[in-house]
């Protein structure tokens, strides 16, 4: 493991000044400007006086912002459930939104290299996006590496801090259209921020060591905080050099991001409530502590708040190295560096300035996000980007209607990077199509149940699809709603107010979860759609389910709530009830995929509660919470199976009747005898269960005509992101994200 350097809590310094703009979650520097993220806004600040940054401009109401990088005159901002925002900052007084990319899941970390964005999307891995034209970002591929939090590209290799796996994944992305993992390195705690310089990897860690239980009695609990350092001069053969280990235990659930920045020979470890740790890494095998920087807040100070120090359920108990009733420290979430100054993004307080000529190096080496620069950006950042003419029109030739239809850009472009006479050739060159489907293989895989497979690929990612009146309606993310015939030929497109993320059809009405655009209701007229009502929600609407009688819709509203809505053909939907969790967030498709026995619906929170509502009466009637059993946290889900609630977990499924009064923990898990185990979001119709794993790409079809003895029908893997399937009497629809939509015609009826 190399040398372990232990750090005691102390040796404390405080900022020397502040910008006076309020709390921030991240900050980046480019030239004489700072770009700070605050709540849902980006603020641009002038550094003419480096000790007193002055606000120049702002862009408000973007989303749930997390990280920012700036390249040239363009800022790239991750916004969790709200995707990726791309902003023109050529005029710092008037930043302008130029693109909003629909990421494959919660956009968390980001790096940019050679016109390619690498977006860490938690469990879904890293999405690789062509941003050579920042106004027209295009999905290229997915690198599945675990719970990706932050990432960086160096010399053609991607380094990803993986949270729950407690590791850094190392991937060869010199061809970003065909990324491949070459190595992993284990970490001393949960992985997040990473930086690479001169073949040395610096990886921030937090919370718990590997194998820790969720209780304080386990000595590994709260003991995973610090930084690991590795030699990655040969990326496929990493070697650990040292570890920086906090001598105290720490755990607090939010904010839960830790980062590392470099101004060689110093590393700056940002660690929320623990502050900033300044480390001498001139000898990476023996790092030395130089100082600690914190922002103390006392009762009555602006930004002070009383932290919860008790766990309501006895698990995940907070552990802090201070008494928050007497004093807390504003969580440090991001950092930017200028000559002699640190600019500290502190969540509860301000954008702080810390000036110290000894602890803050000059700009001999300053991190730019994808490499380190000496006297200017690395030469490959100036490589010219060209697009193969035979695969895609130039971005200026693509119209919004082309984007909605997906007709002119159904495949990612092949991007080559042509270097000028004085610029080194770029290390990244995209060749091939990551999502090209192998239809003969799929036809063979589905042959036990289907006789024909059709495929459609729009510009946006396909989240959901349903058939009605001989036509197929697909929610296609940024491309809106597409109407197709049974051979998946495009008939019509309908622009959505936000990303079209889910849909349901009931009684000639199409209900579309349009993310920031709310819940839209359309009247269906063949291939035509007419918007008749919109439910304006305070949070993005990501999922919708409509009762069979058309009286009620239940939606996922943002990352924390579900809402039950009363439907009326003559008026917009009306809020009846809101369900909130007691812990954890709502991540992906955690609302039951339909109504159990036509009347019950449930939903879960990650590591939290499961609610159950009975919607047979005029108003929703809550049942007791379902306790002691949850779907698999990353991939599992609920669906109706006749009168049963079916949930996928532990490589199979369990089922129970709503209102079940027994021991949920004792419910058996039904697996395929002899394997394989299966994971994903379930859909059930008759005796067929389709389980789609959007994270791993696996689709498993199971015969459940005997519910307690499932039998494997077929299984295959897609390069895309297979979502909740739709099973009809004669067809199976599999939405597959940026790989498009697949339609399989059954050999016989499914009863």
Please tell me about this protein's structure.
By secondary structure, the protein is mostly beta strands. It has a domain at 3-380: YVTN repeat-like/Quinoprotein amine dehydrogenase (Methylamine Dehydrogenase, Chain H), CATH 2.130.10. Helices cover 2% and strands 44% of the residues. The chain has two helices and 62 strands. The strands form 17 sheets. Strands 1-23-22-21-20 form a five-stranded mixed sheet, with no helix packed on it. A five-stranded mixed sheet has the order 2-27-26-25-24, with no helix packed on it. A four-stranded antiparallel sheet has the order 3-32-31-30, with no helix packed on it. A hairpin with a 7-residue loop joins strand 10 (84-88) and strand 11. Residues 364-425 have low confidence and may be disordered.
Radius of gyration: 26 Å
Tell me the strand percentage band: 35-45%
Largest sheet: 5 strands, mixed
> What is the strand tally?
62
Question: What is the correct CATH architecture of the domain at 3-380?
Answer: 7 Propeller
- Tell me, what is the CATH class of the domain at 3-380? Mainly Beta
Shape: globular
Mean pLDDT: 91
Major sheet: arrangement of strands: 1-23-22-21-20
Question: Which properties best describe this structure?
Answer:
five-stranded mixed sheet; mainly beta; 2 helices; 751 residues; 2% helix; 44% strand; globular; Methylamine Dehydrogenase, Chain H
């Amino acid at each position: 493991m190399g040398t372990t350097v232990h750090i005691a809590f102390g040796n404390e310094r405080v900022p020397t000044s502040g910008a006076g703009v309020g709390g921030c979650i991240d900050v980046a520097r480019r030239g004489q400007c700072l770009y700070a993220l605050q709540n849902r806004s980006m603020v641009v600040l002038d550094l003419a006086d480096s000790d007193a940054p002055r606000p120049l401009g702002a862009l408000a109401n973007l989303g749930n912002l997390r990280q920012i990088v700036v390249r040239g005159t363009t800022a790239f901002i991750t916004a969790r459930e709200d995707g990726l925002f791309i902003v023109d900052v050529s005029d710092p007084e008037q930043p302008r939104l130029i693109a909003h990319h629909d990421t494959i899941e919660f956009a968390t970390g980001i790096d940019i290299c050679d016109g390619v964005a690498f977006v860490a999307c938690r469990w879904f891995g890293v999405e690789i996006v062509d941003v050579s034209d920042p106004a027209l970002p295009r999905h290229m591929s997915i690198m599945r590496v675990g719970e990706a939090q932050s990432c960086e590209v160096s010399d053609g290799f991607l380094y990803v801090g993986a949270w729950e796996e407690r590791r850094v994944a190392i991937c060869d992305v010199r061809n970003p259209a065909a990324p491949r993992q070459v190595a992993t390195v284990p970490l001393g705690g949960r992985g997040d921020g990473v930086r690479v310089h001169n073949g040395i990897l610096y990886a921030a860690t937090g919370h718990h060591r590997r194998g820790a239980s969720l209780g304080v009695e386990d000595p590994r609990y709260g003991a995973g905080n610090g930084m690991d350092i590795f030699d990655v001069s040969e990326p496929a053969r990493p070697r650990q050099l040292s570890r920086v280990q906090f001598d105290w235990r720490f755990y607090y659930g939010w904010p839960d991001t830790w980062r590392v920045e470099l101004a060689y020979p110093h590393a700056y470890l940002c660690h929320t409530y623990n502050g900033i740790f300044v480390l001498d890494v001139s000898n990476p095998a023996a790092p030395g502590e130089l100082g600690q920087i914190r922002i103390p807040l006392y009762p009555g100070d602006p930004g002070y708040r009383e932290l919860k120090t008790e766990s309501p359920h006895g698990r995940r108990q907070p552990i802090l190295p201070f008494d928050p009733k007497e004093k807390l420290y504003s969580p440090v979430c991001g950092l930017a560096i200028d000559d002699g100054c640190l600019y500290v993004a502190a969540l509860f307080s301000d954008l702080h300035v810390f000036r110290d000529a000894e602890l803050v190096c000059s700009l001999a080496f300053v991190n730019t996000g994808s490499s380190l620069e000496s006297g200017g950006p690395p030469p490959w950042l100036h490589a010219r980007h060209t697009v193969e003419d035979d695969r895609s029109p130039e971005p200026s030739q693509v119209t919004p209607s082309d984007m909605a239809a997906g007709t002119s850009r159904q495949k990612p472009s092949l991007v080559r990077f042509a270097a000028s006479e004085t610029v080194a050739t770029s290390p990244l060159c995209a060749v091939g199509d990551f999502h090209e489907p192998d239809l003969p293989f799929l036809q063979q895989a589905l042959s036990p149940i289907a006789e024909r497979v059709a495929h459609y690929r729009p510009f946006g990612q396909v989240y959901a699809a349903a058939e009605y009146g001989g036509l197929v309606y697909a929610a296609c993310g940024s491309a809106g709603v597409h109407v197709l015939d049974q051979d998946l030929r495009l008939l019509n497109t309908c622009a959505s107010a936000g990303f079209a993320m889910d849909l349901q059809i009931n009684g000639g009405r199409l209900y579309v979860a349009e993310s920031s655009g709310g819940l839209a209701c359309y009247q269906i007229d063949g291939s035509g759609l007419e918007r008749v009502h919109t439910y304006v929600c305070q949070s993005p609407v990501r999922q919708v389910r409509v009762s069979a009688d058309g009286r009620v819709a239940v939606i996922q509203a943002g990352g924390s709530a579900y809402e039950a809505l009363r439907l009326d053909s003559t008026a917009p939907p009306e809020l009846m009830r809101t369900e909130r969790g007691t812990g954890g967030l709502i991540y992906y498709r955690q609302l039951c995929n339909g109504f159990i026995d036509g009347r019950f619906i449930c939903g879960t929170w990650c590591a939290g509660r499961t609610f159950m509502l009975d919607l047979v009466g005029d108003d929703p009637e809550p049942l007791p919470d379902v306790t002691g059993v949850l779907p698999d946290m990353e991939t599992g889900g609920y669906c109706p199976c006749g009168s049963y609630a079916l949930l996928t977990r532990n490589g199979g499924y369990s089922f129970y009747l709503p209102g079940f009064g027994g021991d949920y923990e004792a419910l058996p898990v039904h697996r395929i005898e002899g394997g394989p185990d299966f994971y994903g979001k379930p859909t059930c119709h008759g005796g067929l269960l389709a389980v789609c794993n959007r994270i791993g790409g696996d689709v498993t079809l199971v015969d459940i005509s005997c519910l307690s003895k499932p039998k494997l029908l077929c299984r295959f893997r897609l390069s895309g992101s297979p979502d909740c399937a739709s099973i009809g009497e004669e067809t199976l629809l599999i939405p597959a994200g940026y790989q498009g939509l697949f339609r399989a015609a059954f050999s016989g009826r499914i009863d």
